[in-house]
Design a protein that fits this description.
- The complex is a heterodimer.
- Chain A has 20 helices and no strands.
- By secondary structure, chain A is mainly alpha-helical.
- Chain A has a domain of 354 residues.
- In chain A, helix 4 runs antiparallel to helix 5, helix 4 crosses helix 10 and helix 12 packs across helix 14.
- The longest helix of chain A has 34 residues.
- The radius of gyration of chain A is 27 Å and the shape is globular.
- Chain B is mainly α.
- Chain B has a single domain, classed as Formate dehydrogenase/DMSO reductase domain (Formate dehydrogenase/DMSO reductase fold), CATH 1.20.1630.
- Chain B contains 17 helices and no strands.
- Classes of the chains: A mainly alpha, B mainly alpha.
């Protein structure tokens, strides 16, 4: 019989045995409806072929591949939080490890599904292995994603064992029989004796070390599928680290969203607290900076090289047909950086300055929107004549920048007072931005490939529906998982409490100043 | 004379740290004399180059950059040790870094001038160096480089000096038997430091702020150094990865240099108590991570080129893998990856001798790596490679060898003299670290009770 802290029992264990409420059923129903709609669309695609999608002859990869890279990227959340933070011994990770590991596993399932959806003949999937060639990055990809999937399921399950045993031992009398049986089965006879703890600890630490290189290899190899071609915009040696950094970045974003959802819905404010948001926010800002560095390095080399085949791809992104997506991505990333970095740096006294008020932020944002509208949309001829003047346009862009910065400054104290909201805003920006980043990498190259001048790609309803269905599937898996298992690792948090208690007993003595000490007079020869 | 109320944090190792400052040995003077002699030889070689022009070096028409630029990149790389250890680890809150911050920052400070000097030596007309600024163009990576490196030099001097301040004051108060000029120097440089809590608070704040700034600078500097190569379209140089690749390589070689410097200081100045084996073990973990990270980048770089198989690129690629530069390339692979990984992972734990061996190998290998990045591309440049039977050659001459030796001698000399004038382990920072040790907690059994197997 494993004991459990009464606080944990009421917050984490009892809700698992309560009958699901109306909100649960409603959410499950809505998500299932979206999935069913996606299933219908997939059936159409299966029958009528990939012609149902917007993909065509040079544009072989579209939204599905973007989704694939996006979901695999998100799956790096679990690896980062649990493995890297475990290896480096960051104590604050404890309450969020479970959510992070769940993201990893579910995102991998959904991500792998994208590949199958993208195939015209999914029945030939196994050919990659049966007729695999060692020099093909696709084969490496299948191997590494499979290894990562098996590894992350193991890594989710191992720290879950003591928790499941706790659930088994603390189930109320009213708990349904199937649930008891499930926990008994999954607990694998866990009794919590010394030998078992020692083994579990060893297994988790081995898995933590093992899964880091696997995670790095997964996203590197995905990037190499692109980089080992000679397509302009893809054939870049930076892609490996760039994708890994982007993956971890978007993973933290997904983690912010998921942990805030769990915290709100299950009322876990005392577990997932300010400390988690603060530290994860620092990591997030760091990753944002590194990501920006890589993005800049990548685009600057192409711009400086000015090679005839590379440059049209860059031009399409910077001012061509992909410019809205590209600059939206940049703006979202900058907004995410701002939302987490600037409020931290803002002194408390700033609120007395009138600029730092939400209504000024709203006014500036409105003005910025008006200026942007004037700059990018076609205007009546007289206005247009004035606006095409280069100086006025430059002035317009400067004004726009000014208004945007003003809006950012105005909203900063509001964000400072609400760190959770700020984190979620930043996370949503980054998750959307990273999806766009993958889009900006994959599609412009395919529509401007080497040797072929130009083509078009427009996603259809099928692709959009299947994307929505994938997201819904991701959400549904979360919903069901956290209805059955505790969202916060009970034993890890309990362990953390004791460590904290032990550490709080150590008092660091204040350094005492010493009087100036004169040394013995001794001649020093030089 | 001076008021007695000057406060210093108590540090039980104070005497051990200050003892090297109290005497200058016979061996020291010999070392200094030999180093000065090597520098003299370098000066002679440079005078030949100054008089007869760059023709006395191995540099020629397509190979404009050789050993000098390799030295430049190498020294700037070494300079990343200090900033990495003090600024980045400071931001990351790694407490173990404290005893070695100063030794690492001193490497930064004393290798940067020789990096800058390498550029001046490489110039046929060094009197035109200022033209980079006077007639600078914003789109030129050379101007970025100039700006970044001079900013870095300036701010690392400030950063170094700030963290030295309480210790200069300590020297002022403790080394009262030192020669008069030395006491005056301490008095002057201590800037009236009294060790008040307010002074320490301000110092910490400034150092925290500067750490953020220095971290950005350190990234910028080596990235911009790499972009001097990366912004061309020369095969082997024109790669987007070159920024992070150079940066990680720089931090890698810098950290290895810290291991070497620390081991020498520990042995020569008998600081076994202060520079514990644990420090070396922490550095070992970092070095393992850097080796693997850097291996990852070098694989990414060459795999991409190999799969692309673009004709221009492959010329350079095969030069490195099987051609003229293959011995250097594979020696680099051996000394940077294979041997250090074996030594660090299997032999290095708690064994300083092995770690120093590996670190020396890493630094030799990193120098070779810079050479093998710079030179093969120049001997097989884009467009002219097929026309260049017999002219794409580069063989360093004795002038370059002598000047390189002189640069290294100068760096060692400055370092050696510095350790006799200032405490090489920060007394005030380690005073905090000694107190803040946390006993390990093994709490799990107390939480869940002892479940006995049934």
């Amino acid at each position: 019989m494993l004991k459990v802290d009464p606080r944990d029992k009421t917050k984490l264990i009892d809700p698992l045995f309560a009958a699901p409420g109306a909100r649960f059923w409603l959410a499950a129903l809505a998500l299932s409806a979206v999935i069913a709609w996606g299933g219908t669309m997939y059936a159409r695609q299966f029958i009528f072929g990939l012609g149902e999608t917007g993909m065509n002859r040079p544009t072989y990869w579209g939204v599905y591949m973007v989704n694939f890279i996006f979901f695999i990227g998100i799956s790096h959340a679990g690896t980062l939080i649990s493995a890297i933070l475990r290896v480096t011994g960051a104590e604050w990770r404890r309450p969020i490890t479970r959510v992070a590991e769940a993201i990893t596993t579910f995102a991998l399932i959904v991500g792998t599904l994208q590949i199958i959806i993208d195939m015209g003949r999914p029945d030939r999937l196994l050919f990659v292995i049966l007729h695999g060639r060692l020099q093909s990055p696709i084969l490496w990809d299948v191997i590494s994603v499979t290894a990562y999937f098996l590894g992350s399921i193991t890594y989710l399950y191992l720290p879950l064992i003591p928790d499941v045993a706790i659930l088994r031992d603390n189930a109320p009398e009213t708990a349904p029989g199937w649930q008891r049986k499930l926990y008994t089965l999954l607990a694998l006879g866990w009794r919590g004796n010394r030998e078992q703890w020692a083994r579990l600890e060893k297994a988790i630490s081995i898995m933590a070390v093992f899964i880091i290189p696997v995670a790095v290899s997964v996203h590197t190899i995905i990037s190499w599928i692109l980089a080992t071609t000679v397509q302009p915009g893809w054939h870049s040696s930076i892609f490996g680290p760039y994708f890994v950094v982007g993956a971890i970045f978007s993973g933290i974003g997904a983690l912010f969203i998921a942990m805030t959802a769990v915290r709100k819905v299950l009322g876990l404010e005392q577990y997932i607290a300010g400390r988690q948001y603060r530290n994860l926010g620092l990591l997030f800002v760091t990753m944002n900076a590194i990501w920006a560095y890589f993005t800049y390095a990548e685009h600057l080399s192409i711009a400086a090289g000015q090679q005839v085949e590379e440059f049209p791809v860059l031009a399409a992104k910077l001012w061509g047909e992909f410019a809205p997506g590209f600059w939206l991505m940049v703006a979202l990333m900058a907004a995410a950086f701002w939302a987490l970095a600037v409020p931290r740096l803002l002194p408390a006294a700033a609120e007395r300055v009138p600029v730092f008020r939400p209504r000024y932020a709203l006014a500036s944002a409105g003005a910025a929107a008006v200026v942007l509208f004037l700059l990018v949309t076609p205007q009546p001829t007289s206005v247009h004549a004035a606006l095409t003047d280069a100086q006025i346009r430059t002035l317009g862009w400067a004004l726009l920048a000014l208004f945007v910065v003003g809006a950012g400054l105005g909203v900063s104290p509001w964000l400072k007072a609400r760190p959770v909201t700020a984190s979620v805003i930043a996370a949503v920006c980054v998750v959307i931005g990273m999806w766009l980043e993958r889009w900006n990498i994959i599609v412009p190259t395919l529509t401007h490939p080497r040797l072929i001048p130009y083509s078009l790609y427009q996603p259809t309803l099928t692709e959009i529906s299947l994307t929505a269905a994938s997201l819904a599937l991701f959400g549904l898996m979360f919903l069901v998982f956290f209805k059955l298992f505790p969202a916060v690792s009970i034993w890890e948090v309990a362990e953390g409490r004791v460590i904290e208690e032990a550490q709080s007993k150590i008092v660091i003595p204040a350094p005492e100043p010493s009087e100036t000490r004169r040394l013995r007079q001794r001649r020093l020869k030089l | 004379m001076r008021p007695a109320a000057s406060y210093h944090p108590q540090n039980k190792h104070e005497d051990a740290i200050l003892s090297p400052l109290r005497r200058i040995t016979f061996a020291d003077r010999w070392l200094w004399a030999v180093l000065l002699g090597v520098m003299g030889l370098g000066a002679y070689a440079y005078s030949r180059q100054w008089i007869f022009g760059l023709g006395v070096t191995g540099l020629n028409r397509p190979v404009y950059w050789g050993v000098y630029i390799t030295n430049f990149v190498f020294f700037i790389g070494l300079a990343h040790s200090g900033t990495f250890i003090s600024a980045i680890l400071r931001l990351a809150g790694a407490e173990w870094r404290k005893p070695l911050t100063r030794a690492a920052e001193a490497i930064t400070l004393f290798s940067l001038p020789f990096g800058v000097a390498s550029i001046l030596i490489d110039m046929g007309r060094p009197d035109r160096a200022l033209n980079v600024i006077l007639f600078g163009r914003f789109q030129s990576p050379l101007l970025w480089d100039f700006t970044a490196v001079s900013l870095y030099l300036f701010s690392s001097v400030v950063f170094f000096y700030l963290s030295l301040l309480p210790d200069i004051a300590l020297c002022r108060d403790r080394l009262t038997e030192a020669p008069l000029w030395q006491q005056r120097m301490y008095d002057l440089f201590a800037l009236g430091w009294r060790g008040h809590p307010e002074q320490f608070r301000r110092l910490e704040r400034v150092l925290d702020g500067m750490a953020i700034f220095m971290t950005m600078l350190v990234v910028t500097v080596h990235t911009v150094v790499s972009w001097v190569f990366g912004m061309t379209i020369q095969p082997g140089w024109h790669t987007a990865l070159i920024g992070p690749f150079f940066l990680l390589g720089a931090i890698f070689s810098g950290t290895a240099a810290v291991v070497i410097a620390l081991a020498i200081l520990r042995r020569v100045y008998h600081m076994e108590e202060v520079l514990t084996v644990n420090l070396f073990n922490s550095l070992r973990k970092l070095l393992i991570v850097f080796t693997l990270g850097w291996l990852y980048m070098i694989v990414a770089e060459h795999l991409t080129i190999f799969y692309g198989s673009l004709p221009d690129e492959m010329e350079v690629f095969w030069q490195k893998f099987t051609g003229e530069y293959a011995p250097i390339f594979w020696l680099m692979v051996l000394t940077v990856f294979v041997l250090p990984l074996i030594i660090f992972v299997f032999l290095g734990k708690s064994r300083i001798g092995w770690m120093v061996t590996a670190s020396v190998l890493v630094n030799v290998g990193m120098w070779l790596e810079r050479y093998v990045v710079i030179v093969p591309t120049e001997t097989r440049p884009r467009l002219v490679s097929t026309l260049m039977e017999g002219i794409g050659n580069y063989q360093p001459t004795w002038v370059e060898g002598a000047i390189t030796a002189a640069l290294f001698a100068g760096m060692v000399l400055l370092y050696a003299v510095f350790t006799r004038l200032f405490p090489v382990v920060p007394v005030w920072e380690t005073a905090e670290a000694v107190e803040a040790e946390v006993p390990p907690a093994r709490p799990r059994r107390r939480v869940f009770g002892a479940g006995r197997p049934r």
